[in-house]
Design goal:
Blueprint: E1 3-9, E2 13-20, E3 25-26, E4 31-34, H1 41-52, E5 61-65, E6 69-70, E7 73-74, H2 89-96, E8 102-106, H3 107-118, E9 127-133, E10 137-143, E11 146-148, E12 157-158, E13 161-162, H4 164-167, H5 169-174, H6 179-197, E14 201-205, H7 212-215, E15 225-227, H8 234-246
Parallel strand pairs: 1-5, 5-8, 9-14, 14-15
Antiparallel strand pairs: 1-2, 2-3, 2-4, 6-7, 9-10, 10-11, 12-13
Helix pairs in contact: 1-2, 3-8
Length: 247
């Protein structure tokens, strides 16, 4: 049994737990802190250190980050402070974690990796798109199980408006949308993805996936849709998997 720490940084909360990377299960209940405001690199790194320090773990730590991450460097940070952009997030976080090795991965890519390896997309061939709905919209695209990283389709502009401003979980709450109203926005986003990349399966994840039964029947798209089976743990599990694969 190999157990590694997974951390999932979100726009509103940061979650962490140790993960058995052979089975994709958490070995202890996850812990969560609110994302600091302002969400500067130093404040977020301190929060990650506080969370990880609450577990008895060794070895590398995987961290899912809400933005583009290329070779450890942050390319975008839409729901955090702009001062993240250009930073080597892996090195920064490692310095706050007693120099333990850190692997960073886009947070939606981490959630998708977990669903492909252990969840609702396990064994599915073709193009699978995981859509995480929370503070923003994250996407992860896989072809025959191979990840195309950092797709960030939640920032597509549809009818003059960025998709995550209409169809994210935060947008639904902020605009006090009823489920049917919000579902129409989500449907438009999914249809746009269909026209662009012709997926074989959509996986709906993020915090709102717990409410999947409240809106799935009103989604009218050609592509089959499933709820993420790992729920809000997917990002933690996928981050730990990324650490395992890197080391």
């Amino acid at each position: 049994m190999t157990i590694l720490m997974g951390v999932d940084i979100g726009g509103s909360g940061i979650k962490a737990a140790p993960v058995d990377v052979g089975t994709g299960t958490l070995t202890e209940p996850r812990r969560k802190l609110a994302t600091p405001r302002p969400a500067t690199p130093d404040s977020v790194a301190l929060a990650v250190s506080d969370l990880a320090g609450g577990f008895d773990s060794v070895g590398p730590i995987g961290v899912g980050f809400p933005g583009v991450v290329r070779r450890g460097y942050v390319g975008t940070a839409a729901n955090l402070e702009p001062s993240w952009i250009g930073l080597d997030a892996a090195t920064l976080l490692s310095s706050s974690l007693s120099k333990r090795p850190v692997v960073t991965i886009n947070d939606a890519d981490a959630a998708g990796l977990a669903e492909v390896r252990f969840g609702a997309a396990q064994g599915v061939l073709g193009v699978v798109v995981t859509v995480t709905l929370g503070t923003g919209i994250g996407t992860a695209v896989f072809n025959n199980g191979v990840l195309a990283p950092n797709t960030e389709y939640g920032h597509l502009v549809i009818a003059g408006v960025e998709a995550e401003r209409l169809a994210s979980g935060r947008a639904r709450n902020a605009e006090d949308m009823g489920w049917r109203h919000w579902t129409r926005h989500l449907e438009e986003f999914l249809i746009t993805l269909e026209r662009l990349i012709w997926p074989d399966l959509f996986i709906i994840g993020g915090g709102i996936s717990a409410e999947f039964d409240r809106f799935c029947a009103d989604l009218h798209v050609d592509t089959p849709i499933r709820a993420a089976s790992l729920g809000n743990d997917a990002g933690i599990v996928g981050a730990a998997l990324a650490a395992a694969e890197d080391f």
